[in-house]
Amino acid sequence: MDLAYIPSPSTGVINLGPIPLRGYAFCIILGVFVAVWLGNKRWIARGGTAGTVADIAVWAVPFGLVGGRLYHVITDYQLYFSEGENWVDAFKIWEGGLGIWGAIALGAVGAWIGCRRRGIALPAYADAIAPGIVFAQAIGRWGNWFNQELYGKPTDLPWALEISESGNRVAGLYHPTFLYESLWCVGVGFLVIWADRRFKLGHGRAFALYVAAYCVGRAWIEYMRVDEAHHILGLRLNVWTAILVFLLAVVYIVVSARVRPGREEIVEPRSQKAAEAAEAAGDAGDAGDTEKDAAEDAAEEAPKDAAEDAGAVSEDASRDASPDGKKDASEEADGAERGAGTAAKG
């Protein structure tokens, strides 16, 4: 008798009146919100402006959803295009089925378009949103729990996942690989945040670290899964994909560190120009204040100087009008007459 296990939801849909709220879609939306929120905080801390991450996400998210769905449909085409299957189901994204490899690849194309429109380098943007993306993956994996999919081999562990019988599912207790991957993603997110603070990762290396670390976990978790998948040389296709992407990410980190060491000083040219303009405006304002103060000082001193000059003139005039002043003038006149008489005699 099993005393402990993780129960699965009886349904993946909650009806809010006429509106169906699907657990899978809700987890995806919540994950996108967390990714944008955390990415915005990290972008601002790097010197960018608020709102830039969300503006670029408007391009990246739709591209990522399309890419994720395309990867899933292409790699599991038999689920939609084989005999007895309905190809229309390929468009029912709410029923599950998003490949992270396609989501990241095509999402990067959307992010590149958004970055070019704002004059931003894609690697700097990728570094800022890397932890948010992997936390979004951790949340999104709970959508698989709602749909009772992506579980592992049978197990009797206390944290086994209960799966009910339906369609191609066999009732039983299985490894909760969705939970393993969710917890792994949380660990990767904190690893990237720590390494970025410790080593000042730049030029896309924080994003590459996220990719490499995620691939390590995805490889062993993928190996535990029992859902239908294509195999190459005895390994599931996604295991080979994880190995290849891991190698590419490691090579990028090594080469990038040698070619472009350090971290970008300016991540958003527009914000830098705005800061310089604000600084210039501040300097101009200080100069204006200095001129204003000088003018006010001159205005205050002018009446005072004029009053002093007027007082001096008045004092001279009063002195001239005094009896002594008159006496001095009379003496000067007598002296002039005597001088004139002497000159006449000579």
Please state the overall shape, judged from the principal axes of the Cα atoms.
elongated
- Helix % is 55-70%
**Strand order, sheet with most strands:** 1-2
Quickly give the structural class.
mainly alpha
GO molecular function: phosphatidylglycerol-prolipoprotein diacylglyceryl transferase activity
Pfam families: LGT
Family: Belongs to the Lgt family.
Subcellular location: Cell membrane
Give a description of the structure.
- The structure is a single chain.
- This protein is mainly alpha-helical.
- The protein has 2 domains: 13-267, no CATH class; 273-345.
- Helices cover 69% and strands 5% of the residues.
- The protein has 10 helices and 6 strands; from the N terminus they run ββαααααββααββααα.
- A two-stranded antiparallel ribbon has the order 1-2.
- A hairpin with an 8-residue loop joins β3 (161-163) and β4.
- α1 (23-45) packs across α2 (52-75), α6 runs antiparallel to α7 (205-224) and α7 packs antiparallel against α8 (237-259).
- The longest helix has 53 residues, at 269-321.
- It is elongated.
- Residues 325-329 and 339-346 have low confidence and may be disordered.
- Keywords: Cell membrane, Membrane, Transferase, Transmembrane, Transmembrane helix.
- It is a multi-pass membrane protein.
Provide the fold topology.
Elements: E1 13-16, E2 19-22, H1 23-45, H2 52-75, H3 78-81, H4 100-118, H5 122-147, E3 161-163, E4 172-174, H6 177-199, H7 205-224, E5 231-232, E6 235-236, H8 237-259, H9 269-321, H10 323-345
Antiparallel strand pairs: 1-2, 3-4, 5-6
Helix pairs in contact: 1-2, 1-5, 2-4, 4-5, 5-6, 5-7, 6-7, 7-8
Biased composition (Low complexity): 274-284
EC number: 2.5.1.145
Pfam families: LGT
